[in-house]
Amino acid sequence: MKKLSDIGTIKEILTKYGFSFSKSLGQNFLVNPSVCPKMAEMGGAEKGVGVIEIGPGIGVLTYELAKRANKVVAIELDKRLIPVLNETLEEFDNVKIINADVLKTDLHKLIEEEFQGLDVIVCANLPYYITSPVIMKLLEEKLPIKSITVMVQKEAADRLCADLGTRQTGAVTVAVNYYAKAEMLFKVSSGSFMPQPKVDSAVIKLDVYSKPAVETYSEEMLFKVIKAAFAQRRKTLLNTLSNSMQYSKSDISEVLNNAKISQNARAEQLKLEDFAAIANELSKLEK
Ligand code: SAM
Question: How far is CA 278 from the centre of its chain?
């Protein structure tokens, strides 16, 4: 078979199947042959590993993952791509394609049924319209996975990998830091895709901790605080927490004092431990 990642081969396959790209499904396919092998290697696809891929498209990354790992399960929502994938990946007997929406898929069940005895990783060029929901699903469901290596928009990558306490952070940065260590792997220019998107992309890796980075009385309270704190990121925590969480200003002032956080602090200045300290103080108030 011709090399799958060659733009000529990709165009030939798309024409053969009369495929037209769906913008609403975030379909920008990789046509730069150097990206997928690098992603598969750096993502940790190797012997003894089972890979979950989200959105295989026509299978350019799936191909590189299947060459290296014991097994790949790829979840693709667009049913028009299933016959294409059956052809492009026909030489492998360690690939399973599931026609489903990743956000509605029971991944605990999938891992139990498909990856017995293997270390599990996620490796994917994500559909960008669901970047945060997918990453949060993978982390919040506390799946038995070692790492998540994903291509996302460059801006999203910067936010996900930002150091806490800097201006680039958002609620998602803090949430990711709770579950994993985030690392920027490499940048990918918009010219590496067909059709070419307006923005550049980057591949990031989240090494998932075996237990969260900080301990709290209530995870639910911690995430409420993170969400409320970033809802109005330019305001002080004193204002934004009392507005969004329906506590009095004097309660929040006392909570900040007990948590040893300045009354003028803003969300983007806090470390994960600070959010945990605030959440713990608020949990005490609820009792
Ligand atoms: N992996 C391919 C590549 O790198 O060329 C395609 C990546 S493309 C950015 C995203 C893929 O995700 C598309 O194939 C799209 O159909 C699929 N997709 C979109 N929404 C999805 C969802 N909710 N669940 C699973 N796949 C989805």
Answer: 26
- The CATH homologous superfamily of the domain defined by 7-208: Vaccinia Virus protein VP39 (3.40.50.150)
Q: Determine the distance separating the centroid of ligand 1 and the alpha carbon of 127, expressed in angstroms.
A: 5
Instruction: Tell me the domain boundaries of the chain.
Output: 7-208, 219-286
Ligand 1 site residues (CB inside 6 A) read: 25-30, 54-57, 60-61, 75-78, 81, 101-103, 125, 127, 130
* Residue 247 alpha carbon to ligand 1 centre in Å: 42
Determine contact, residues 271/165, Cβ cutoff 8 Å.
Answer: yes
pLDDT digits (tens, 9 = 90+) for 202-221: 999 999 999 999 999 999 99
- For the chain, give the mean pLDDT: 95
Q: Return all residues near 48 (Cβ < 8 A) that are at least 6 apart.
A: 70, 118, 119
DSSP-derived 3-state class of residue 95: strand
Instruction: Give the pTM.
Output: 0.95
Residue of 13, 25, 110, 150 best suited for mutating to test ligand 1, as the one with most atoms within 8 Å of CB? 25
Q: Within 10 Å of residue 41's Cβ, how many Cβ atoms?
A: 13
| Contact status, residue 73 vs residue 98, Cβ threshold 8 Å | yes
Please identify, in words, the CATH class of the domain defined by 219-286: mainly alpha
Choose one of 6, 13, 76 to mutate for the ligand 1 pocket test, by most ligand atoms within 8 angstroms of C-beta.
76
Contact 134, 126 (CB under 8 A): yes
Report the length, in residues, of the chain: 287
